[in-house]
What we know:
The protein is α+β, with helices and mostly antiparallel strands. It has seven helices and 15 strands. A hairpin with a 2-residue loop joins strand 13 and strand 14 (273-274). Helix 2 (112-124) crosses helix 4. Mean pLDDT is 88; it is low at 53-58.
Amino acid sequence: MLRQIKTKFDEALASGAITFTNTTTSRISSEGVEFQIRLAPALVAKPASTLLSAATPSQLPKPNPFLPHDQKLFVSTIHGTHNLLLNKFCIVRDHILLTTREFQNQYNPLNVEDFTAILEIMKEMPDTMTFFNCGDKSGASVLHKHVQIIPVDKAGVPMNDLFSLLEITIPQGNPFVVPTLPFAHAAAFLPLSLSAVSANPIDISIHSSLITSLYRSALLESFRNAGFDYTPFINPPDPTVELPNPLPPSYNLVLTTRWMLIVPRRMEMWNGISVNSVGFAGMVFLKKQEDFEQVQQKGMMNLLKELTFPRHLESP
C-alpha cells in the first residue's frame, strides 16, 4: 500500500494535481514536549473552512471535493466503505485522506467501519499517525466525513514522550488523564499496538470493535473533563440526512499505533493561528514567520490552552 501511495503521489505532483511545498522545521520545548514547528507557505493557498450547519448533500457547499473525488488523487477503495485519496494541499509527502464513499457528515463520531479502514492502513504503515478534526472549531475544512493520515519518523510524534512515561503504570484499554497536559482531554492506550494486529479479517474485525468502543468511552470522558455531557451526540441520527440540533461540540482526535488522545475545542484559532489535531500530537504547521514568532513568545502549551477548556478532572 505504501508503494502505491508513493507512486500515486509522484504522479499527482508531476501533473500538478496536488499542491506541495517543502517546509522549514524548528523545535520549541514547552511543558516537557519538543514541539515540531513547520513553516508552510503552501497553507496560504488552502481554501478556508466550508463547514456549515447544513446536513444533507444538497445543502453542501459546491463542489464537495470528495463526491465525486478527483481521479488524479484516488489511490484505492478500502473495504468497499471508504476511498483512500491523496491530500490536495499537503506539506508532508504521502499525506492521505480516508473518506466515506457515500456522504456522511464530519460532525458525526467515527464508527466501526471507519476504524476498520483506519486499521487496515495503519497495520501496513505503522510509521503513521491518524487524526480527525471534528466540528467547526477543530480546524476541519470539509463537511464530508474524513480522517487524515500522515507519515511520522521512527521516533513517532513529539507527544510520545509524555505517553512513554505513563505506559508502565497506566493499564491499556481505559481512558485516563495525562498529568502534564493542562487542558481538558482524555487519552487511552490501545488494547494492542495496531502494527501487531494480524491480517486475519476476524482479528481486524475484533480489534476495530475494541478501538471503536474505547474511542467512544474516551470521547465521553474528554467532554466530562471539560464540564460537558457529550451523551446526546454519541449516537446521532442518520449521518447522511441531518445533524443534531444544536450542533455537536468540536474536538480533535490523534491516533497512533499505541495510543489515542481526544481534546474538546473551544476555539479554532488564536491570533490568526489555526491549530488542528496535529497540534495536540506536538506538531504545528504555520503560514508565516510572524506566526512562528508569536508561538515562540506565547509558548505552545499556553497556545493550546487558549484553544481548549480547563480541566475538571484530575489525573489518576
